[in-house]
Write a structure and sequence with these properties.
By secondary structure, the chain is α+β, with helices and mostly antiparallel strands. It is elongated and about 175 Å long. It contains two helices and 26 strands. 20% of the residues lie in helices and 47% in strands. The strands form six sheets. Strands 10, 12, 13, 16, 17 and 20 form a six-stranded mixed beta sheet that branches. A five-stranded mixed beta sheet has the order 18-26-25-21-22, with no helix packed on it. A hairpin with a 2-residue loop joins strand 7 and strand 8.
């Protein structure tokens, strides 16, 4: 008897090394009660490790939409790894209920596990920003049809807003003080359920028409420089960004000098051009169109491209001016020195003439 017990312990230990115990069903997600909103796609994955050949997994429940079985063999233990995925493409109230996955062998149930699926009805109210009619506050709210809610936390971009001074949370309502277009986006009311480690997320939208921020007045580049233009758009839902050059839509080819990249969640909002040429100069326009609001916002910027030797021409001009000025000074000084020499010679000759004339007068007096 002791030998059989030790053998059982060894088998159990080997099974635990490779994951779950043999014939023990695991269902993903692992939470026993799963909450879904209307229209959500649901996938339940049932898995089991079996040492018996010919076993299979079966789903039973309110409405079993479609299931896919797969079988693999563990190369080390030779165990069969069975998987059966149940998929509900669009969850509705008729799909609510208990779903059980059974591991069977010739109609004998070896093991089973269940999940309870519930439809959550949301009653929510969002906010739409209006530039012409600004308000002191914006209220977002969400309520769900579950009685055992423990508490609610509001989140945006994975950031808890409970400790942010700009927001006030009260009774499933989030108040945003002095709302601006920059506050637009999807906010999440995260409901924590009593007796469950899981939570339910209710999405509430703060919408705003698109607005493109101003560019700098002009962009001056030198030939062969790399150019970058960033189209900074605010608003939600995200608008579609299109670039134009001189009122013609920009043609972007794969592997070319011109590339478009995402920026702040907006596709094609970051324009890059490698080694700019004179033909790249012109007026660039970024236009953001929102199908949700059926409006557009756009801004333009002028791009100038100069010769890469452009900075050299002013220097050469200065050098030329200096050379000309030095030449003029040299010629002037040379002529002035020559004139001074001539005046000195003339003065010397005049002095010599006077001396000679004085000698003649004295000679004449002495003869008389």
């Amino acid at each position: 008897m002791a030998l059989y017990f030790e053998l059982f312990v060894v088998i159990l230990g080997l099974s635990l090394i490779h994951g779950e115990t043999v014939n023990s069903i695991v269902i993903y997600p692992k939470e026993e009660t799963l909450l879904y909103r209307n229209g959500t796609m649901v996938v339940l994955s049932c898995q089991v490790r079996s040492k018996e050949n010919g076993t299979e997994l079966k789903w039973e429940g309110s409405v079993v939409m479609s299931t896919i079985n797969s079988l693999n063999v563990d190369p080390e233990t030779k165990d069969e790894l069975l998987t059966n995925n149940l998929t509900i493409t669009s969850f509705k109230s008729v799909n609510s209920g208990v779903y059980t996955c059974k591991h069977v062998n010739r109609n004998a149930v070896l093991s089973q596990a269940s999940r309870t699926l519930k439809l959550v009805t949301e009653t929510k109210e969002g906010f739409t920003f209006n530039e012409a009619n600004k308000t002191e506050s914006a209220n977002l709210s969400c309520n769900i049809n579950l009685p055992n809610v423990k508490n609610v936390t509001w989140i945006k971009n994975n950031i808890d807003l409970s400790d942010k001074s700009h927001y006030i949370e009260e009774n499933n309502t989030l108040t945003i003080k002095n709302p601006e277009r920059k506050h637009a986006g999807t906010y999440i009311a995260r409901f924590f359920i009593e007796g469950s480690s899981d939570h339910y997320d209710c999405e509430v939208d703060f919408t705003a028409p698109p607005h493109v921020d101003d560019f700098e007045k002009a962009k001056n580049l030198i030939q062969d420089d790399n150019m970058e233009l960033q189209c900074k758009v605010q608003g939600f839902p995200h608008a579609v960004v299109t670039w134009y050059k001189d009122d013609i839509e920009l043609n972007v080819t794969e592997g070319g000098r011109v590339t478009l990249m995402p920026l702040n969640g907006y596709k094609n909002a970051h324009l890059k051009i490698k080694s700019v040429e004179f033909s790249d100069a012109g007026e660039y326009e970024c236009k953001a169109y929102s199908a949700y609001f059926d409006v557009s916002s756009s801004k333009k910027v002028t791009v100038r491209v100069k010769d890469k030797l452009a900075a050299l021409w002013p220097f050469l001009g200065i050098v030329g001016e200096v050379i000309i000025l030095c030449t003029i000074i040299f010629i002037y000084e040379k002529r002035r020195n020559k004139r001074a020499e001539q005046e000195e010679i003339n003065a010397q000759e005049a002095k010599n003439s006077e001396t000679k004339a004085g000698l003649r007068r004295r000679e004449k007096r002495s003869e008389n």
